[in-house]
Amino acid sequence: MTSAQMLIAIDPALKAAAENAARDNARSLTSFIEKVLADHLKANGYLRAAIGHGIPVSQLSAENDC
Hints:
The protein is mostly helical. It has two helices and no strands. The termini are far apart.
């Protein structure tokens, strides 16, 4: 997969908070920002969620346990 590059300017406090969150999630800042943005876009219908396999974790129950 190829990546498109973009240059953004953000508030230094926002960048520092994002760096802390990225570190807590064992991600690079770039990877963290991409994930947060993708999650937001999927949740709000701007980006189609990838087709997964099986039952989403949120829908697991004793009734559908295989």
